[in-house]
Amino acid sequence: MTSDVFAGAGFQLDSAPLLSRSTVDRREMLRDTPDGGAELWSTGRVVLVDAKGRTQIDADSRLVVHPASDFGERPAPNAILLGVERGISYWALRSEHDGAQDGWRDLRASGGLLNDTDAGLLTTAVGLLGWHDNARYCAVCGAATTRVRAGWARRCTGCDREEYPRTDPAVICLVHDGADHVLLARQPIWPPDRYSVLAGFVEVGESLEACVEREVAEEVGVAASDVRYLGSQPWPFPRSLMLGFAALADRSAPLIPADGEIEDARWVHRDTVRAALESEGAAVDGLRLPPGVSIASRMIRGWATWRG
Fold it and tell me: Residue 68 pairs with which residues in a beta bridge?
């Protein structure tokens, strides 16, 4: 290949993925205080999250937090220590209240509006609370488990085994031709005209690079090469870590969308992508791009604005 074929090869994310931002101190030693976190709790703040991952966000796009003392003199049994910021501890609790009628919002709708501290708090809270909801029984003996270590582990009441929060690694890859075209695809369940980059879960015994090559081949039938890491973002829906990559592919190779998984796939020129980015959500040539809260948006923007 000639050097101009690699015109887009050096692009990076246009900015840090919005759900990767965090400022609180989450050091492990904070979870094992002798008094069970009572001292931290006394001056702490609580983030309430309902069963659908929604929380209260005020008119200034700040998390609504509550004095921990409102929930008792000691850490509530189901409280999770999210971290400490400027001497104030932050905790998460599952709210039994259905926030649908009160304007509560989830990370997809509001994550991009939150500041760095609030984005990190809510992303961690949603992920950890979701894990606790689904880890109530031991995977080894089937006995009930209880929360320990300020909500960062569960211990089996039968065999005393400790289990820690699970994260599922998934690759997400922007495939381009090295020049001015990017490969975008859409799933049948997405809103009309929504296209994005390709993604899939890492399998047991598989490297990240091998996963990129396999997923691209499976989803659109082309061979990916020159796989390069870009960045990562937690995606707690329910417990993924999105690992972003870029790769090259031959634009002349036929596209074969995976039956039932990929409704359509097409190569899109950089000018069309730029126009879609500037359209504020309106379709451009049948193209709507993923929302800004996703790492896919940061990847696409990085590629579209690359001037190398």
Answer: none
Given the DSSP bridges, would you call strands 145-148 and 162-163 parallel, antiparallel or unpaired? unpaired
Please tell me if the domain spanning 3-18+167-304 has the same topology as the one spanning 33-134: yes
Residue in the block written with tokens 């923007």: 301
Class in CATH terms, 33-134? alpha beta
Do the Cβ atoms of 80 and 152 come closer than 8 Å? yes
Concatenating the DSSP letter of every residue in 150-176 gives GGTEEEETTT--EE----EEEEEEEEE
Rounded Cα gap, residues 200 and 168, in angstroms: 11
How far apart CA 154 and CA 107 sit, in angstroms, is 25
CA dist., res. 249 & res. 17, Å (int): 25
pTM: 0.92
Could you read off the pLDDT of 229-281 as tens digits, one per residue? 999 999 999 999 999 999 999 999 999 999 999 999 999 999 999 999 999 88
Q: What does the domain layout of the chain look like in residue ranges?
A: 3-18+167-304, 33-134
Name which CATH class applies to 3-18+167-304.
Answer: alpha beta
Strand 153-156 relative to strand 168-176, pairing? unpaired
Strand partners, 84: 25, 89
Dist CA 8 CA 4 (whole Å): 9
β 153-156/145-148 pair status:
antiparallel
